Structures
1.
Amino acid sequence: MGCACASAQRADGLAALSPRPVERERVYIVISPMQPQENVALAPLTTFQIGGPARFFVEAKTRTEVREAVSFAHSRDLPLFVLGGGSNLLVSDSGWPGLVLKIAIDGIDRHPGEVEGKILFDVGAGESWDDFVAHAVSSQCAGIECLSGIPGCVGGTPVQNVGAYGQEVSETIESVEVFDLKDGEVRELCREACGFAYRSSIFNSTEHGRFIVLRVTYALTPGGRPHLEYADLKRYVEGRASAPSLVETRDAVRQIRARKGMLIVEGDPDCHSAGSFFKNPIVSEEQHRDLEKRAAAKDLALPSYPALDRRKKISAAWLVEHSGFHRGFIEGRVGISTKHSLAIINRGSASAAEVLALKDTIQMQVDQVWGVTLEPEPVMVGFQ
Ligand SMILES: Cc1cc2nc3c(=O)[nH]c(=O)nc-3n(C[C@H](O)[C@H](O)[C@H](O)COP(=O)(O)OP(=O)(O)OC[C@H]3O[C@@H](n4cnc5c(N)ncnc54)[C@H](O)[C@@H]3O)c2cc1C
């Protein structure tokens, strides 16, 4: 589908952004009738279950409430943090000194008819991501079935271009409706404007802190076949007489995730995490050769996958495991999941400082053994 905004060129470097504001009201003139709560514990709002309180907290169910909350933060000169499902965060022990704005805009609206063979779904940023996947799959629409079971809300998915088992949301996101904190306008950004790459977009890089995601439009394929490229998933469906349906693929993905502690399951202590704590490093051919040599010296074979621009993606889990950290590793109140070596877990009442200490130890050790600096995936909130 064509990009409505790719041709917009502006002198201020916003060439990729849509020139098309969805509405023209400015935020800063709104007088806020809202009453945010004070000193709200953030730990229960995160999957890590760690972190101090928010000085102010508000939940916004509509664009107007988002606007009011932003106005409140501006009027008091408070730093603003936008919260989704809290599944990709490490909140500091001192919490957040300003306003935490939880986006709770709901709704799944299916456009009538098809556009270039796709069905468009407009989804509120506060909808549960996995509920939307379930909805899409049961509507026989393909494109996100491998992303089943990822916790969090729809608004969080474009931020780090969520991906798993061979799919990324960048492949199906048609556009993202945002509130632009720079000028108080609501805009629609096309896929190209979002600058998607591996676990990255403009929302967590070049334009970090500028946009609040309000809605996301996904273009899915009606009657499409499930994407079965990933080795784990292929193995799971091997030997079947017929190809699995979208619903069966979703079930398989959720079962595989549960085995790895990557599905939020009530009572599973391995779920008190932010998922994978480190990104898979992408290295140059030269670095890759060096890593292969180091691995060969230890009688190991380095698992790697092709990445863009003649680079290679290395498994961060493998690097962690071959640097002395096994699944089930314990360090006081924190540790590594018994099911996945990339998940740092809260073993009960852990502090953010303890998580950071373990993160530092792992990074240091991997660097020493492999010469690779692992980059954390979760967003650090409220650290000085
Ligand atoms: C068990 C487990 C498994 C996971 N598996 C995967 C996986 O397979 N693949 C993967 O990619 N990720 C995975 N994750 C990480 C996480 O679930 C995703 O990154 C998710 O999309 C985060 O969404 P959220 O709503 O929880 O965002 P939050 O954690 O609340 O926020 C994350 C970041 O997004 C920003 N944000 C959230 N909502 C908005 C909004 N509406 N507007 C602007 N900014 C916003 C926040 O400010 C913050 O910077 C996993 C996490 C866990 C705990």
2.
Amino acid sequence: MNIKRTTTKLTPFCAGLLLFVSCNQASKTEVTLKDYGAEPTVINIDAYTMSNSNFRTALWTGVNLQSTLMSIPVGGDVGLEKHPTTDQFLRIEEGTAQVVMGDTETSLTFVKTAEKDFAIFVPAGKWHNIINTGNKPLKLYSIYSPVQHPHGTVHQTQEEAEEAEEAENQRYFNKNENFMTQELIQLPYATNALAPAISKQTIEFHHGKHLQGYVNNLKNLIQGTEFANADLETIIRESDGAIFNNAGQILNHNLYFTQFSPTGGGKPAGRLAQAIDAAYGSFENFQKEFEAAGVSLFGSGWVWLAADRDGKLSITKESNAGNPLTKGLKPILTFDVWEHAYYLDFQNRRADQLKSLWIIVDWKIVESRY
Ligand SMILES: [Fe+2]
């Protein structure tokens, strides 16, 4: 959302002389409130902060750092929260606040008053809140490292911010994971490296033609829609029809291609191995059930090993572009049972393809998803 405003502000020269001479010179700062993204940007942050009347407006979202503008109404607060791995800097441009921080939600032993021109540093892992104790909106800007909110975030009210945070908590994947890319993913191995489980020719068609097609389609479909700046997980959770199908196929293929390695094979270890034993009795039994699910899937689709929020595993079959995310499950491992995944190498022998894939599964990668 772009909001254009113009603020009138005394130049520093005028402001400095104001006490001594009458000075009517003023500079006009044109303010366009939007997320400038990871672009070179120079702005008058004071004018931008004063112009913002949303609870939160993302101003600049880079790769490692983000700036947001906040306006906290009289009697309101930022909201008691903790960012486990994010440091935060805030600067108050107008208003008066009480700043509280602590190690737990109930022991906020650090208490300070802050006002215009004060800076607040919040270390990662500290519970914190900033309460507007003045009689006008508290105007501040915040800098997060790493990025905290999606690019282009606008929360008009605190309620809207809390709803978005709730949705964020339901997510399974970090937006920065390599498999979350909407561009054609780079394969972490040479196109001939997975043969004979998957031939060079199949990889070249599957990755270079089929996946590239989904990437091109999604780009065209989301242009100008509410999903234009959304990540794959959000699109899959919230869309349907062609947008869902193409976003689903991109994430499914990204998870598929990145789970293989020419030095793969063997068995999982650690927590995942224990969970597989608990759910299927043994790894060998799990393999049998997984292959059987893939073989019995009618038409095109994907067979998945997925986990619920307690880590309980299940094997699910999904038609077409389906993904366990839509059932509230986290995708861990997947075999593609669309014919385009194996027809050049195995023709109609889907079972043989599924059986052959085990020797290239990189269990370290799969374990990292669990
Ligand atoms: Fe595929």
3.
Amino acid sequence: MTKVAFIGLGVMGFPMAGHLAAAGHDVTVYNRTASKAEDWAGKHGGKAAPTPRQAAAGAEVVFTCVGNDDDLRSVILGEAGAFAGMASGTILVDNTTASAEVARELAAAGAGQGIAFIDAPVSGGQAGAENGQLTVMCGGEQAAFDRAQPVIAAFARAVTLMGPVGAGQLTKMVNQICIAGLIQGLAEGMTFGQKAGLDMAKVIDVIGKGAAQSWQMDNRAQTMCQGKFDFGFAVDWMRKDLGICLAEARSNGARLPVTALVDQF
Ligand SMILES: NC(=O)c1ccc[n+]([C@@H]2O[C@H](COP(=O)([O-])OP(=O)(O)OC[C@H]3O[C@@H](n4cnc5c(N)ncnc54)[C@H](OP(=O)(O)O)[C@@H]3O)[C@@H](O)[C@H]2O)c1
């Protein structure tokens, strides 16, 4: 059993922290909207703290899962931030989808205090978080990863160290670039089929067994045809992610014409 803190109880963080508690860890949570932290503590039997610093005090591993780079800085840095409550030798695991740049910035800030930082964005969506079946892509030092991995495993089906700090976020960018174009292509195919008067359930069943098959087709094509789109991943988050990808591409020289186009839709 490890003493852990979880900061950010949104669509993803709430169930992820729940899996940590269910695995037997001693969990203290913090959420900006305090009522959610109280709900969580009531449901999972852990403790709620009034600031990130107080949640992180005494924890061996501190998790964060907030919105974007600035949200992350606001819960980690400063007087009431998580780093202020953490001791030397502890680990901060960040599950937010953020830039590789902020991961490196926070890792440098933590290193000054002897705190290891692992960027650990996730894939698998709300369902993956609720089922404890997320894919976690990590960036950081091997020694810190080896200590954090068994704890992260409470909400994951795969936890992989991709390289140094920032490599987790860069991997998640590849993930989002792959999804953006694919989901647009899928939407166009579904619209075309409907306009052509085809039985779309039959179409999806048939082409889903061939080369057009994808996770998006298996999980989203049917519901797209029914006009259902609310599956816990906000469009604003996807646009935030594509913005991160496009900014990174400007610095590494990759050209992303399809990603840039989909971002404008
Ligand atoms: N949803 C998905 O399917 C999915 C999948 C993979 C990755 N992600 C990524 O995971 C992260 C969280 O996503 P989510 O869907 O869980 O978002 P969400 O439901 O909107 O939750 C965001 C959480 O961050 C907190 N927060 C935001 N800004 C803050 C700030 N400035 N200070 C303190 N707390 C702050 C929110 O607190 P309040 O409760 O007070 O608003 C809330 O707990 C995002 O980076 C997202 O891109 C999401």
